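quick one: protoporphyrin IX containing FE bound model?
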Amino acid sequence: MAQQQVDGHEIYYVPSQSKVPVWLAFGLGVMLYGVASWMNSLQTGQHGHEIMMLVGFLIVAIALYKWFAAVIVENHAGLNSSQVKRSYVWGMGWFIFSEVMFFAAFFGALFYIRFFALTWLGGGGEKAITGEYLWPDFSPDWATGAVNPHPQFAGPDGTFAAPSLTNWGAYLPFYNTVILLSSSVTIHVAHTALKEGNRRKLILWLGITIALAFLFMGLQIEEYVQAYRDLGLTMDSGIYGSTFFLLTGFHGFHVALGTFMLIIMLARCLKGHFTKEDHFGFEATAWYWHFVDVVWLALFLFVYVF
Amino acid sequence: MSAVIDAHHDDHDHGPAKGITRWLYTTNHKDIGSMYLWFSFIMFLAGGVMALVIRAELFQPGQSFVDPHFFNQMTTMHGLVMVFGAIMPAFVGLANWMLPMMVGAPDMALPRMNNLSFWILPFASALLISTLFMEGGGPDFGWTLYAPLSTTYGPPSTTFVIFAIHLLGASSIMGAINIIATILNMRAPGMTLMKMPMFVWTWLITAYLLIAVMPVLAGAVTMMLFDIHFGTSFFDAAGGGDPVLFQHIFWFFGHPEVYIMILPAFGIVSHVIPAFSRKKLFGYDSMVYATSSIAFLSFIVWAHHMFTVGMPLAGQLFFMYATMLIAVPTGVKVFNWISTMWQGAMTFETPMLFALAFVFLFTVGGFSGVMLAIAPADYQYHDTYFVVAHFHYVLVSGALFSIFCAVYFWLPKWTGHMYSEALGKVHFWLSFIGVNIAFFPMHFSGLAGMPRRIPDYALQFANFNAWSTVGAFIFGLSQLLFLYVVIQSIRGGQKATAQVWDGAEGLEWTVPSPAPYHTFSTPPQLK
Ligand code: HEM
Ligand SMILES: [Cu+2]
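yep, here:
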């Protein structure tokens, strides 16, 4: 496992040629061409290229699998000096930052709509003239979700806004918050166990984390069902539904991805891939999970409660 | 897994693999840098042809050459192709080639991801350009993708444009992550942050900007996608949304984006001017701080693109003053370059000519920028050719000239041969003259009220436009000469020394020319 050294310097491992990246790029191109033409076919009713979408996805999946497998093998072969490992650490850190900025765009949209656009559309604030010109009868109310000046967008009958505190016992998003926050704690416990070299504890707590993740996703699905079935809160019900579904939807998608990563980590723990000192794959997953959690916290506050 | 074990025995000793797989499967920063540069040149020619279609149509008033709908597709595609296909990849290519050598690293930090970042580009641009051949035509709403033109009224191919932008963004983000990791993690021992070459510094900050704003663009086009296909109403006032919201999000990306395209240029010029003045860069520290403050300010000025949409007065004032503030650190840079030349032993080889033209013409663009930043004046200038003049001065005679400058400066290091100085100078003068004939008259047509993105115009603008078209063709055609000069230097010519330019400093000049396939497998000793 010795790292390669020359004249007392660690050698920075530069992998030799690899077929994977170019295949991955090709797969992405094929997949997205397929996705785009499928979306267009939804509107025109013509035939899209769903097959391309699937083939592309398959290529992407295989390429990613091969890529991660290669990295794991290299690490076990002792090719990764501490400096190489630091590159992976920086890489993951900045990737998470880019994800934060992706969500920032949607939160920015939410704030702008709530605090500027809607006020103006409703004939208030500095740009009140907008409302007077466009829809003089319209009065916006974010809390009820009834914010649609034009009948083309029906508007929901209700929202998931928070009830008074005493009623939180029946408030689904509150449970989800508790679940997700706890899962951040449990993954931390698992990580501590890994650092202590306590395998049983690691696997137990990682398993609990995964269970919590599934519970969260299950409740989230239940919430969507309620939204569509009982509240008339849909994606095309107006701006409240738009922000609600895109924010919670992309968050849910990230939770799903994070859960997938957690499952892989569980498999790798069972296979004994990690050591006390060397387990960045696990750590990166844990970071990602904490990130998903923090996004939820912002979501809970600004999409649900306030 | 044998391929992986192979890597055990050092592949640093071999040169490149043979055949096409060298390029498809490579992990070598020099190969990838070359591919980026060639790709960006091809895109530059493609975008250039579109520009010439635009200029041909505008040569005379009246509808003369293409139909208006196609004209709109040309303006849109020209912008998208040049920004995402030509300028940005060219700078990433230069970063790939130079950063590892400048910081004394064996390669980029994450070599396979590096190759992925590159290879996404051809697929993404194929997706983008193929929209021109789709039913309903390509995107026709301008590179700024404003809703509702792009949502309610866009052609079906808009969906493809959105995914192309997603891919281009992913490529940029991965490229930027790689660059940051390389700079922060791979510097030779002893190269502290404040000893890094300026190109490294400017790229560090550029990469940070990229990671911060490309995801925001992704968010913006995602909202477009959902508005188009899934009934959301982000940009539709009927459902409580707001088209102006799109502009805010787009420009939150867009303004930092223009600095993404100019900061690396600042870095290049900060290498070339000292080299040919045979002096150290004047005010290195202040350059670093100026670059950082420009990056910071670039996040809080975006709405200067939107003075006319009807923002509250407080907003207009804030964005006006914040924008003008940027002129301060920019001015610091210009003064530093001039002071570097002061009393230097200057010579005027092609890279230096481009660097000088950069300083001069970029400043012209900076001044028109300050004019545009004055909100009440911008009511008059907005969406006229004055804006077009402004951003072509900063992007063509700014960003693009700096890329030419960099290519001439480092070409001998890449190919091992000197380029033809005489032809290089001809290329410079043709470009310099062409750019000014093309874009200077646009200031006047703009001030006189000619709107941008319109295929026809009133008679009083005819002379200005005829000149612009002549200039554009001079500029466009002279780029073929550039291609010739580069190919000539790849194929042969006077052997270059390791030092190449006697006044140049930095680790890249300590390795032989052409630079060996692998440089600095062990970190160099810094003096
Ligand atoms: C002193 C520095 C600068 C100032 C004060 C400035 C100011 C402005 C303003 C106010 C506008 C909006 C004009 C309008 O639409 O009415 C504008 C447009 C633009 N600027 Fe600058 N600018 C500066 C530097 C730059 C640089 C360095 C670049 C790129 C390298 C750049 C690229 C652009 C582009 C591309 C547009 C037009 C975008 C579009 O509408 O399509 N600017 N600038
Ligand atoms: Cu701007």
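Confidence is low (pLDDT under 50) at residues 1-12 of chain B.
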